[in-house]
Amino acid sequence: MNIAPDLDSSQAEAVPERGKKDNSELTVYPEDYSLLTDLYQLTMAACYAGESLDERKACFELFVRRLPEGFGYLIAMGLAQALEYLEQFRFSSEQIAALQATGIFSEAPERFWSLLATGRFTGDVWAVQEGTAVFANEPLLRVEAPLWQAQIVETYLLNTINYQTLVATRAARLRDVAGPQATLLEFGTRRAFSPQASLWAARAALAAGLDATSNVLAALKLGRKPAGTMAHALVMALGAIHGSEGQAFAAFHHYFPGATLLIDTYDALAAARLLAYQLQAGEIELRGVRLDSGDLVALSREIRSILPGIPIFASGDLDEWEIARLQAEGACIDGYGLGTKLVTGSPVNGVYKLVEIEGIPVMKKSVGKETYPGRKQIFRRFYQNQMQADRLGLAAESPTDDCEQPLLQLVMKDGKRLQPPEPLEAMRERTAINVASLPSETRRLSEPQQPPVELSKELQALLQQMQIS
Amino acid sequence: MNIAPDLDSSQAEAVPERGKKDNSELTVYPEDYSLLTDLYQLTMAACYAGESLDERKACFELFVRRLPEGFGYLIAMGLAQALEYLEQFRFSSEQIAALQATGIFSEAPERFWSLLATGRFTGDVWAVQEGTAVFANEPLLRVEAPLWQAQIVETYLLNTINYQTLVATRAARLRDVAGPQATLLEFGTRRAFSPQASLWAARAALAAGLDATSNVLAALKLGRKPAGTMAHALVMALGAIHGSEGQAFAAFHHYFPGATLLIDTYDALAAARLLAYQLQAGEIELRGVRLDSGDLVALSREIRSILPGIPIFASGDLDEWEIARLQAEGACIDGYGLGTKLVTGSPVNGVYKLVEIEGIPVMKKSVGKETYPGRKQIFRRFYQNQMQADRLGLAAESPTDDCEQPLLQLVMKDGKRLQPPEPLEAMRERTAINVASLPSETRRLSEPQQPPVELSKELQALLQQMQIS
To answer: Does residue A357 share a domain with residue A334?
Structure first.
């Protein structure tokens, strides 16, 4: 049987061409975003429209069922892009025509098409601020909107928040391990999963604790200076023509005086000795050297003795565990370039679940995928700036006392953002404060434990009532 | 020390605003792509320009040093986007002004700016066709171009080819394990690392063996019909209002007659029995049911007996190993939805290395990161359509006999593509033929072995000569 759900056997057939549809044209334009959704969101919306349920008030919450392995917390990130998407949510007549041409919607009610043609996102959004630490089963975001809108936006909201939360969490852990003085640079563009992923990764990394990105476009879009050193290719290309690594260094310094030099193309120690000689002779200035290979502990220690006072940068498949190991073994490294293991890997598996419809709390009961019913709020209890515990309660509940803070805030009302996007620095500061507030067993790399998250009495009562019914 | 390589201590300072630079505006437009590169590519290009080396003919090759863990082969993918990028490669006056405003290039030679202002990509590209199986140290692509151009394009080329090759390889393995009759659907959009990643993943997945994608935008851009079923939210929302799961199914079928139904929101077996009753009574048609949770082996077998002849689809964190396990344990599953484990995870770590400059072969000698010098060609030996071995030789070598095929072809000459982009079907067919040609120990999931890749005598001689020098 080679058939696909919801489609007749022609599912592999091409949809008739509508203008230029070259398979290489996979650029995403903001005006396309509303179609960047799973087909079932649209078929479900059509069904809601036909049943006159499309305007019913629905509440969906976005959360993770469990933290990624080896993580004790998540740093929420991606809200700005999520809200931007919601503000721009609309379907053009070309998009509607394209949907109609698929043939999938031939029995869809007329009301579905008028919803798409005139609809905007008109709902409210509650969310934790970017840079906030969250844990399993805690909503990062809640959408309260007419059912059809809240349904269609699921895919994009998960896409932006899942990925940026992953990168921000890693960046926060890297900063926590490396310490406040280390220079942490985002070098992941070549390994990021698409050009846009490299931009989002750079944003999330900078917002959660890294110092700079090598991605020129990302840096300029974010109003930051890009960072970088040099590659082996320069040493090889100039060396092949000019005759030596030293001449390649001199040429590079002519245009970028004092620039950090990559010294491991041939023999890092020999290169370091040459530079030490030139420094002593007053021939050069030097703001750093970079190592991209070899035994970083032994090499960095030798180079520190050859080039005292010169910052040493390391790169090459580094992550928080490797930085911890280098530190424990006494490496002399002042800065790290982070790439592959910052911007790729296993995702944050956020989900987006219906928790209430027309004021009626609902819950999913599938085996192993149960959800908590109702609109919820996270109440975080602090004592002397240290987080003690979270209480997951219903949105209508209040803090029990002044030590509890509700984390979800109203950030969009009737489809309009209530605040302009925050600067990166504000998110970075919030991330640092949040990480510093966590228990040490939550921050540690080895078998971290998430802090206690208890259910409020009201939520427990609702849960019990619904499990019985 | 909190300093960044190549920057003075102001690296964390904002670059002065140039018009609207809102941190939420991270859309990538094709006209931005030339700045989607690492800073060091531009500083190196400036250095080449200053040294009058920018026009020297450079050859870079893109390859992986080792296959990702658990993989016996890679399926090359992403060439169409790489060539599209090279054809559009240029810098606008706004981009040049933005670079100048960073202050990083204050000592850069005037020639650098004139290169950027007037330069295009004028080089040649050799590549294996999309859908071709490749192994460690084999070039997927070679750029032969003026040094400054070949250098700057590195980051983007790696970005597109690394990611699409990963997804295509996974898709090929999934198809190989699931068999030609299974329906394989790409459901990864919500977990993909940015909206653009979801489009590229859909393309690579369809080009390498999957049947359809749930991503509406991707499907329409690729000229395909999107696929999908329904979500638990529909059952919960309609159920909460209409009163039962069965009424939710009926409502959905009213607009999508016969559509595949998701039956595990509450009790999959009870739902299947209801549908069986309705089918026998002739009240409904049904093209499939989907399970997203629970014991898929036991459930699918029971459902097959309750609903004989109705296709059963499974989803939920599936990958090739899980499909193999389900098959081995006798699950009755006709189609699979693949998401997280298809579109995220550890990357393909392609690298892009200088192999020749002005006709002089070069190689990198860093410990553990050695490269093979010179412009190379892959000669693949076949016997009765089965791959026997690869011989990695120099580009100037010829096949030894008719059983050897050179895999790298000239695909771009003087900056112009030689062929229009291929249809997805051609790549999909090539992928299937390539996978079928591989030895069984290369295709197996458990400790796969890559086929023998030998170095030609000429390449060995060059390597030896350069290791001595």
So the answer is: no
CB-CB: which of B104, B256, B360 is closest to A43?
Answer: B256
DSSP H helical ranges for B310-449: 320-328, 340-343, 424-437, 440-443
Let me know if residue A140 belongs to a domain.
yes
B238–A contact, CB cutoff 8 A: yes
pLDDT tens digits, A51-68 = 999 999 999 999 999 999
Looking at the predicted structure, is the pLDDT value of residue B366 above 70?
Answer: no
Nearest CA in chain B to A7: B227
Instruction: Answer yes or no: do A4 and B227 touch at CB < 8 A.
Output: yes
Tell me if chain A has a CB within 8 Å of the CB of B108.
Answer: yes
Q: Tell me the pTM.
A: 0.94
Same domain membership, residue B59 and residue B197: no
Contact by Cβ (8 Å): B57, B144:
yes
A347 contact partners, CB below 8 Å, separation of at least 6 = A68, A162, A163, A166, B191, B193, B340, B344
Q: Which of A20, A44, A55 to mutate to test the interface with B (most CBs of B within 10 A)?
A: A44
Phi and psi, residue A406, nearest 5°: -75, 130
Query: What is the ipTM metric for this complex?
Result: 0.94
Q: Does B93 touch chain A (CB under 8 A)?
A: no
For residue A13, the model assigns a pLDDT of: 37
Which structural domain range is residue B314 located in?
177-343
B53 touches chain A (CB under 8 A): yes
pLDDT above 70 as % of chain B: 93
Q: Which chain A residues are closer than 8 Å to B109 by Cβ? A: 255
Candidate from A23, A190, A230 with C-beta closest to B162: A190
Integer angstrom CA distances of residue A465 from A233, A360, A409, B266 = 66, 13, 28, 16
Provide, as residue numbers in chain B, all residues whose Cβ is less than 8 Å from the Cβ of A217: 28, 32-33, 35-37
Q: For residues A228 and A186, what is the distance between their CA atoms, to the nearest angstrom?
A: 9
- Read off the tokens for A403: 């030590």
Residue-level length of chain B: 469
Cβ-nearest to A183 among B2, B50, B189 = B2
Which amino acid, residue B74? Answer: L
Statement: residue A3 has pLDDT above 60:
no
The CATH number that applies at residue A29 is 3.20.140.10
CA distances from residue B355 to A28, B139, B463 in whole angstroms, order as listed: 34, 11, 12
Final residue in a domain of this structure, among A343, A377, A394: A343
| DSSP string for A79-123 | HHHHHHHHHH----HHHHHHHHHTSTTTT--HHHHHHHHH-----
Which member of A14, A38, A287 has the closest CB to residue B215?
Answer: A38
Cα distance between residue B157 and residue B81, in whole Å: 9
